[in-house]
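Below is how a single chain appears once it has passed through the pipeline. First comes the sequence as given, then the structure the pipeline wrote out for it. We keep one example in the README because the format questions we get most often are answered faster by looking than by reading.
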Amino acid sequence: MPRSLDELLDLLDLEQIEDNLFRGRQPETRLQRVFGGQVAGQALVAASRTVEPGRAVHSLHAYFLLPGDTNVPIVYDVERLRDGRSFSTRRTVARQHGRTIFYMSASFHVPEAGFDHQDVAPDVPAPDVCPTLGEVLEKISGRPSDTWAEEWAALDVRYAGDSRRGGTPDDPDHPARARVWFRAAGRLPDDPVLHRCVLAYASDLTLLGVTLVPHDTYIGARGLQTASLDHAIWFHRPFRADEWLLYDQISPSASDARGLATGRLFTTDGSLVASVVQEGLIRPRLDGAG
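Resulting structure:
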């Protein structure tokens, strides 16, 4: 994962190889496979570059098919499925070594006036009084916070609480709930496309972890195999990814070695800007391997 915001921006600046064909670089990382949020963010960049200006992505649906190789670039092939009066649809396939590792369908929409309502944002501590995600994971895992934070230095992430025993929020209706604040670790250019791509990148960082909150374990724990399986985002309202966003995450179910998680993203003034759903593999390893 990128170790600075500048490196993240470099990753999202794809090289165009041919019409509808793009190549994405890789960061230096200790991870054995490509971070799913990186592939989703780069795929959204590729799709967005084939859509006429003025049409903003309003939804994407993606499947992670194979682990990505961190040592070679990823090629993104965009198919222009439809360009209508109000909507454009794209399908993006990510490939390495001649194999498809990921695909995404995304829909883009011309802004329109219409009905407007939303859920109320939850009442949570402000980000400046919340511990960093690395500090929280250090207490859970015993590994120094710096080793956790090193891989996501492109983002500023603060932990606002979870529903594990004795945790906050205490939410009997949702035994698996966690909340984090995040923002880009620096100022971003004003391009709204870039802000949506950074949100897509960040949305995969903590979401699967909420499925493990009631089970006294965490992503990266020994004896646990985890992976994102699919991922969907709906974008509702304008936002900036370099300003604080509250990620309110719930896991309604975990069974059959899979966990389902949902997330709502709010600005500090309470605007609901995006909704996310993900299913992931959370497989206990009987052999104790990581």
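The mean pLDDT is 91.

See the next section for the split statistics.
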